[in-house]
Amino acid sequence: MVFIKNKTLCCHPRAVPKARLNGGGLVIGNDTRTCNAGLAGAMRYGSSEDITTGLVGHWKLDESGNISTAADTGGSNDGTLTSFPADPTPNWVSGSVGGSLSFDGANDWVIIGDPAGGELDFGTTQSFTMSAWINTNDAVSLSRPFSKGHWGWAGGGYSMWIGNGVLEAGTTGTSKGTSTVADTTTSVISNGTWYHVAAVFDQTAKTIQLYVDGTAQSLTKVAGTCGTATATVLDYSACATATASSTHDFVIGASHVNSEHFDGEIDDVRVYNRVLSAAEINALPGLPGGVVQFCNGSAWTDWGN
Q1: Are 124 and 203 in contact (CB under 8 A)?
Q2: Residues β-bridged to residue 207
Q3: pLDDT tens column, 81-104
Q4: Hey, which of 77, 173, 269, 295 has its CA 20 to 30 A from 201?
Q5: How far apart are the C-alpha atoms of 222 and 229, rounded to whole Å?
Q6: Rounded distance, CA 275 to CA 69, Å?
């Protein structure tokens, strides 16, 4: 059963984001209906948090059948399934929020490219947030849910990794000592479990935060890299050349040089060109940051506290 604000509603938790009921039923997610007399008694579970502003890339990975393109519903940069079977139907599987794409950990990946408009490059001043749902078969080996550069400690760009159960994310300078990589202080990723992972780069404050299932994690840094970690924040204000721009492709399921392949399923990859707050991260699909409301015939009203 699902418990929302101490109220039993319905369904297994993984079914909740897919629920779509009309009339007096419960709608989960982005319900934009206007409350009026005809909708009286209807209920919705969602959030008033803004999770659309600044969304410059969104690959839901909800496709199915013999489709070799991952649509970008947040922008115009569709991805191409590369080194997947000629018919990738078996790779489009159930996910955490809808469908997902299954990666073999050997050589398949999704190539989005390096958009000419620069919407996936953030330099040294543009804040950004990247997130996804992941379910790995190998939490020990180093792998990347997604990446745009950050290889060999040069060339710019950013990336997210997992390895030995640790979640990592960072940007690249001109050397290892001028690059910054935040690590969770403990193992937070295990095999065979869906996790929501997010990395928030505040390029005004020059800080990184990593979230797992909506909770900010205690951080350290990769030895030899730039920055200072305190509690859940890594400060990289001293890392002057670390930049989140590169000429490399944005890719899902590997590094941009076709290595460190992800073994498992990836779902709902998002990139924002701004900082997402903790409340906004928890309002993303599949996370419990919403509130139950009912239509009283004229307005949506919160149901309890």
Answers
A1: yes
A2: 202, 235
A3: 999 999 999 999 999 999 999 999
A4: 77
A5: 10
A6: 28
